[in-house]
Amino acid sequence: MSDRPIGIFDSGVGGLTVLKEVSRILPSENIIYLGDTARVPYGIRSPETVTRYSFECTEFLLRQDIKLLIVACNTVSAISLKEIQKKVSIPVIGVIEPGARAAVNSTKNRRIGIIGTEATIKSSAYPKAIKALDKDIEVFGLPCPLFVPLVEEDWTDGIIARLVVEKYLKDMIDKGVDTLVLGCTHYPLLKGVIQDVMNNVCLVDSAIETAKVVRDVLKSRESGVSGQGRIKFYVTDSTEKFVNVGERFLQSRIEDIEKITLEVR
Ligand code: DGL
Questions:
Q1: The pTM is what?
Q2: Which of 61, 90, 233, 250 is the most exposed place for a label (fewest CB within 10 A)?
Q3: Residue 168 Cβ < 6 Å to ligand 1
Q4: How far out from the chain centre does Cα 113 lie?
Q5: What is the pLDDT of residues 163-216, one digit of tens each?
Q6: pLDDT tens figures, 215-229
Q7: Does residue 185's CB lie within 6 angstroms of at least one atom of ligand 1?
């Protein structure tokens, strides 16, 4: 496995929440991050388009000789993970299964809420993954499309964030869930407000759960890296915007960044 990099891709800046957790628990790993910023958001697109885009991202990262691929985007993980796994020979880890497993372990009243993009909720990928672990758990899905622009605008606390979160999550409170999966890359940045609004509910952060799975997979394959890993960023649109918003997501500097054009098939 050696010091070949881990590849991570997302529709844009959001997957940096996953990168942050992966580099926190695996600081020696070299990582290549690809954000398809020219075509974000994926969450409003058809499954065919999401799958096509995700193949193009995967092919780019495979050309960088990655040893493991993380699909950080919930929308892509929900729609295209299996097809990506079929195409490649390295391990491919998505964010749905780890989040679903953590939710099942957390719930006491067996009522779980899922929030995500429209495409993620429509796919029913989280309910399917949860019911595969325990078919008697009740799962309630809710798209929260305004959360993504809210986070990118840096309105993650204050009155506007609070009102938007309250408005969306009212139904979820009425359903009496005791566990809520943050099923979108951006939602961990709203954790504070969401927790205030749903104060007795356990929030599951798919980014953290996914990083743990990556650690376990690499441990079993003896990754063998040491020292401080390097992180290289690629984006498909302006690097400036990505750096501005991304440093907030990552809570550290983004230095080694390059704009690329994906090969469109
Ligand atoms: N990264 C996407 C997700 O986690 C959110 C942004 C988008 O719609 O592309 O579903």
A1: 0.95
A2: 90
A3: no
A4: 17
A5: 999 999 999 999 999 999 999 999 999 999 999 999 999 999 999 999 999 999
A6: 999 987 766 677 899
A7: yes
- Helices and strands: H and E segment counts in the chain: 11, 10
List, for residues 109-133, the tens digit of each pLDDT value: 999 999 999 999 999 999 999 999 9
In the chain, the amino acid numbered 25 is I
Over the Cα atoms of the chain, what is R_g?
Answer: 17
**DSSP notation for 93-108:** EESHHHHHHHHHHH-S
Flag whether pLDDT at 3 surpasses 90.
no
184 Cβ closer than 6 Å to some ligand 1 atom: yes
161 closest CA partner among 171, 173, 172, 148:
148
Q: Whose CA is nearest to atom 6 of ligand 1?
A: 41
Residue in 73, 121, 152 to alter for ligand 1 test, most ligand atoms within 8 A of Cβ: 73
Token pair recorded at residue 163: 């009102």
Q: How would you list the strands of the sheet with 92-94, edge to edge? A: 92-94, 68-71, 6-10, 31-35, 231-235, 257-259
Asked whether the beta carbons of 34 and 234 are under 8 A apart, the reply is yes
Strand ranges, E, within the chain: 6-10, 31-35, 68-71, 92-94, 111-116, 138-143, 179-183, 202-205, 231-235, 257-259
Which residue's structure tokens are 């969401």? 194
What is the distance between the alpha carbons of residues 199 and 182, in angstroms, rounded to a whole number?
Answer: 15
Whose CA is closest to 57, among 9, 119, 7?
9
How far is Cα 203 from Cα 58, in angstroms, rounded to an integer? 30
